[in-house]
Design goal:
Order of helices and strands: EHEEHEHEEEEH
Number of helices: 4
Radius of gyration: 20 Å
Helix content: 10-25%
Mean pLDDT: 87
Strand content: 25-35%
CATH class: Alpha Beta
Strand order of the largest sheet: 1-8-4-7
Shape: globular
Number of domains: 1
C-alpha cells in the first residue's frame, strides 16, 4: 500500500516595503584616510566606510527581509530582484540605493553600537542576483522602497524529501 503525502508549494517570490527615503550610494558611504603610525614607512591609504545613515538603512532592509523570509525559502537559488524607489524629491539617481539593498539582503555581520550583529539574508551572497531592475518614482508624502525577490530557477525538491 502506498501513501500519498501532500505538501504546500514552496514560495518562489517575496515582496516587502522599506519605509523612509531610500539611501543612495553617495549618502551610504564616506571615504576615510588611514594614516600610518609615526616612523612607519607605510603610505597613507583611503578606504570606504558606511555612514550612520547607510548603516541604519542597511540594517532596516536586513531586518525586514529576515522577517518576511519563509522558513522554507530557497537560499541556494539564483534571484531576480526588482526595486521601486519612491523618493521625496526628484534629485536622487534611480539606481543609487541598489547596491546597498542587494548587500543588505545577503548574509552579513556588522558592528552596531559596539556589538557585532549577524543577519541571515534572503540569499547567501549578492553574487546570486542574476538580474535586477530599479525604478524611480516620486512620493513626497510616503517615501519608501518596494522590493520583490523572485527565484530565477524553479525549485526542485531533492529525492530524500519525496521519500519522507
Amino acid at each position: 500500500m502506498t501513501e500519498a503525502i501532500a505538501s504546500a508549494p514552496r514560495p518562489t517570490e517575496i515582496s516587502f516595503t522599506v519605509r523612509g527615503n531610500p539611501v543612495s550610494q553617495n549618502q551610504a558611504w564616506t571615504i576615510i584616510t588611514w594614516k600610518p603610525k609615526a616612523g612607519s614607512s607605510a603610505e597613507p591609504h583611503a578606504s570606504m566606510k558606511l555612514t550612520s545613515e547607510g548603516l541604519e538603512f542597511k540594517v532596516a532592509v536586513a531586518r525586514i527581509a529576515g522577517l518576511v523570509r519563509p522558513p522554507d525559502w530557497d537560499r541556494d537559488n539564483e534571484y531576480i530582484v526588482d526595486c521601486v524607489h519612491y523618493f521625496d524629491t526628484r534629485r536622487p539617481d534611480h539606481d543609487g540605493p541598489g547596491k546597498l539593498i542587494f548587500d543588505a539582503m545577503a548574509d552579513f555581520e556588522i558592528e552596531v553600537r559596539g556589538k557585532t550583529q549577524s543577519f541571515v539574508g534572503l540569499y547567501k551572497n549578492d553574487r546570486q542576483v542574476w538580474r535586477s531592475s530599479q525604478q524611480k518614482e516620486l512620493d513626497p508624502e510616503n517615501p519608501r522602497t518596494e522590493i520583490t525577490v523572485r527565484l530565477r530557477r524553479p525549485w526542485q525538491p531533492v529525492q530524500r524529501e519525496l521519500l519522507r
